């Protein structure tokens, strides 16, 4: 077990939803009352067994990385940081109350995990949160692996990241920060580590991804103290995974941790730094050379060079993924429809395990990465982009667009609208599955989707909404739908990746130059508009989001790829406008997500991200309104970027974070209209009309009635009509109430 000369293979984490999304199906059956807790646990055990089967090709396997919903929530439960409102007699009910909310309580806030499309639940910590060790899950999953004879390494979110990812509980003193509680929390971690040690664990992995971000000297002092305290209780491997440790690296090494797992894909500067630090030859250094975030085949020649550099520094070397493999699909072998020259360049989780293993095998492959074929290049697109010049900006400032837009589409104050999608019912998905499998002809599929559009339009008219949507029934996903129609993209049949809880996505593969060959959305929008006198919004996904939710080529800057996508969207916007569409929404929910974890890269990011949005949208007439939509709080960091999009209306997530975004908007150079979401659509809970009215009053007080729209937080695709109809009735009623008060 303590082989000190050979290079050891491992992974920092693994997909946990099941290779065929078994856990997703079991969870959704459980939530709808079709599967009892015992049935859910059986399904979970089968998923864990499959994970261990896969991982067993490695010298050492991570354990405890399975989760019913989210690993940050698991950590909260492991230290008993459960909000009083989520405590229930049944622990599983308590867990799902925190994750999803229930009749009695709103859930925890959900937000993006670093610069990924994974969402974690934000723990709520107060000055009196009574931490207590609950190591049962960690111990049980460790033993499950041990019983198979595997070298098992328990994984937990580390205490510093846990508190940095948390937020102060409601009513905490103004100056309280969760990190203030590090001393108490670390004591509880020592108990958990001790329990794991008693169960037979050697090395324990503590994930500290928050140390891939800029940290202040005070925070570094906290890291030092916390790890000095922990090193006595277990052998600790600290993993980062979302960039370089940077200034945290010497602090961790000085604290005496047993090992450190480096992200050598995004954080190669750590390797240079290590060579200048005085690293003990006893330190276990894990070289994260296999990308945990993307699906390109590893350049084994280059990776092997980095492993050699690590071998020069220490006698205990590991090879691993750069982060958990949670962010990539399970198995490339499930993809039978991809072109061979693409398959030859791809690697999913199972293939990555083989790459990791090969790098620890002296006789393993050291193949370099083959270059992209010439056929993936499109010189026409490149020439058009080069000639774009200042066409990337709207000719007329917002102040002068307001009147022509109001004249073209007259609306009351606090206009009501939705974000785009209506429920993706089981029937819609079945029809799409049948169409995909060739069991339903195109004409029948289109007729079915048009019927759904008609139903959605009729429902919105009945509800009395002001600006309607077609409901997006024809879209499997807001990114994949576009990727399927653009050149330069491939889509997968089963490349599922967890986004949050039971919700999964199939990120498309953006491998070459991008171009549009035909209109992608116009017939749907035009059809919807033909059914109503009310305005129907056109609905597109923006370039940043298309990139963020795809696996993107890494052979040119993201900015260049974004501009190509933007150009394709620009043509779609022009076609929508030519078809008579007066309002075009271009969603950028991932604008915040791609913001670099460290401040150094942010200005450049803001510049290219907002320019690509403007390339997509700036071609319209002054009386055509551009709307955009963003989800997931913490807008503070991107508020200037939101302004730089130069949209006429921006709808944003606000309800789960209790309208905190209004404070961010205050003082920002943002003048146009805002639709702060007043209904948290990620929870099955239906808000009351007066609750939404209260939220709208806050918005009116902050922005003035003339700048506020009334809308949900996000699209309704994940909700059921039983929730949507009463919630939208309440929303329309709330808008009317507050409108009357403001008049
Ligand atoms: N890419 C992406 N990222 C995003 C979002 C988003 O909308 N898209 N929204 C935010 C929140 N994240 C979300 C992520 C996923 C879903 C979601 O609803 N996902 C669906 C799958 C969507 C999909 O691809 N649907 C396909 C395939 C559906 C499917 O599973 N079909 C069955 C067969 C049909 C059946 O009997 O149900 C199968 O293939 O096995 C379709 O409709 O065609 C799910 O997990 O259930 C929602 C929000 C942030 N990130
Ligand atoms: Zn959204």
From TrEMBL:
The keyword Zinc applies. Pathway: Amino-acid biosynthesis; L-methionine biosynthesis via de novo pathway; L-methionine from L-homocysteine (MetE route): step 1/1. Its cofactor is Zn(2+). Residues 414-736 form the Cobalamin-independent methionine synthase MetE C-terminal/archaeal domain. Gene3D superfamilies: 3.20.20.210. Residues 9-312 form the Cobalamin-independent methionine synthase MetE N-terminal domain. Its EC number is 2.1.1.14. Keywords: Amino-acid biosynthesis, Metal-binding, Methionine biosynthesis, Methyltransferase, Repeat, Transferase, Zinc. Belongs to the vitamin-B12 independent methionine synthase family. PANTHER family: 5-METHYLTETRAHYDROPTEROYLTRIGLUTAMATE--HOMOCYSTEINE METHYLTRANSFERASE (PTHR30519). NCBIfam families: PRK05222.1. Catalyzes the transfer of a methyl group from 5-methyltetrahydrofolate to homocysteine resulting in methionine formation. This is 5-methyltetrahydropteroyltriglutamate--homocysteine S-methyltransferase. It comes from Glycomyces endophyticus.
């Amino acid at each position: 077990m303590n082989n000190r000369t050979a290079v050891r293979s491992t992974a920092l984490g693994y997909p946990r939803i099941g290779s065929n999304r078994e856990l997703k199906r079991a969870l959704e059956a459980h939530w709808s009352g079709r599967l009892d807790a015992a049935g859910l646990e059986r399904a979970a055990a089968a998923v864990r067994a499959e994970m261990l089967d896969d991982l067993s090709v490695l010298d050492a396997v991570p354990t405890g990385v399975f989760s019913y919903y989210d690993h940050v929530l698991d950590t909260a439960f492991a230290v008993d940081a459960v909000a009083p409102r989520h405590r229930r007699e049944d622990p599983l009910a308590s867990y799902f109350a925190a994750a999803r909310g229930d009749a009695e309580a709103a859930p925890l806030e959900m937000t993006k995990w670093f610069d990924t499309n994974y969402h974690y639940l934000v723990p709520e910590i107060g000055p009196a949160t009574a931490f207590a060790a609950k190591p049962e899950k960690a111990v049980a999953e460790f033993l499950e692996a041990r019983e198979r004879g595997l070298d098992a390494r328990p994984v937990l979110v580390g205490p510093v990241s846990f508190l940095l990812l948390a937020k102060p509980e409601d009513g905490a003193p103004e100056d309280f920060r969760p990190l203030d509680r590090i001393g108490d929390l670390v004591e509880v971690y020592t108990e958990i580590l001790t329990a794991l040690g008693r169960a037979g664990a050697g090395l324990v992995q503590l994930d500290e991804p928050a140390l891939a971000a800029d940290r202040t000297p005070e925070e570094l002092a906290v890291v030092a103290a916390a790890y000095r305290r922990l090193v006595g209780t277990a052998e600790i491997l600290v993993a980062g995974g979302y960039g370089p440790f940077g200034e945290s690296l010497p602090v961790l090494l000085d604290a005496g941790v047993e090992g450190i797992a480096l992200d050598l894909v995004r954080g190669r500067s750590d390797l240079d730094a290590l060579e200048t630090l005085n690293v003990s030859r006893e330190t276990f250094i894990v070289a994260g050379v296999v990308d945990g975030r993307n699906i390109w085949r590893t350049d084994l020649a280059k990776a092997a060079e980095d492993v050699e550099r690590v071998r020069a520094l220490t006698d205990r070397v590991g090879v691993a993924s750069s982060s958990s493999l949670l962010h990539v699909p399970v198995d490339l072998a499930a993809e039978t429809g991809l072109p061979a020259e693409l398959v030859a360049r791809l690697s999913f989780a199972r293939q990555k395990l083989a790459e990791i293993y090969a790098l620890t095998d002296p006789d393993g492959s050291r193949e370099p990465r083959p270059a992209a074929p010439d056929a993936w290049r499109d010189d026409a697109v490149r020439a058009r982009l080069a000639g774009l010049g200042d066409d990337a900006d709207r000719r007329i400032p917002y102040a002068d667009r307001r009147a022509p837009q109001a004249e073209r589409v007259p609306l009351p104050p606090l206009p009501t609208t939705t974000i785009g999608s209506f429920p993706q019912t089981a029937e819609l998905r079945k029809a799409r599955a049948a169409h995909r499998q060739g069991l339903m002809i195109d004409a029948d599929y289109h007729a079915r989707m048009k019927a759904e559009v008609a139903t959605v339009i009729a429902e919105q008219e009945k509800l009395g909404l002001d600006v309607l949507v077609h409901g997006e029934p024809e879209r499997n996903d807001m990114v994949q739908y576009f990727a399927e129609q653009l050149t330069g993209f491939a889509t997968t049949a089963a490349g599922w990746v967890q986004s949050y809880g039971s919700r999964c996505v199939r990120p498309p593969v953006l491998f070459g130059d991008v171009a549009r060959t035909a209109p992608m959305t116009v017939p749907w929008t035009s059809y919807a508009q033909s059914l109503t006198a009310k305005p129907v919004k056109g609905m597109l996904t923006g370039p940043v989001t298309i990139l963020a939710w795809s696996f993107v080529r890494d052979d040119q800057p993201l900015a260049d790829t974004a501009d190509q996508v933007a150009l394709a969207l620009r043509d779609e916007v022009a076609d929508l406008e030519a078809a008579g569409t007066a309002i075009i929404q271009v969603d950028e929910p991932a604008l915040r997500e791609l913001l670099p974890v460290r401040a150094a890269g942010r200005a450049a990011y803001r510049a290219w991200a907002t320019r690509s949005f403007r390339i997509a949208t700036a071609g319209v007439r002054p009386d055509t309104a551009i709307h955009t939509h963003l989800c997931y709080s913490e807008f503070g960091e991107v508020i200037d970027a939101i302004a730089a999009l130069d949209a006429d209306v921006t709808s944003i997530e606000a309800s789960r974070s209790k309208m905190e975004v209004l404070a961010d908007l205050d003082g920002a150079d943002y003048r146009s209209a805002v639709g702060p979401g007043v209904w948290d659509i990620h929870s099955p809970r239906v808000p009351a009309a007066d609750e939404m009215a209260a939220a709208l009053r806050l918005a009116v007080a902050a922005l003035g009635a003339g700048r506020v729209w009334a809308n949900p937080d996000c699209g309704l695709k994940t909700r059921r009509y039983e929730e949507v109809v009463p919630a939208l009735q309440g929303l329309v009623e709330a808008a009317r109430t507050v409108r009357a008060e403001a008049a």
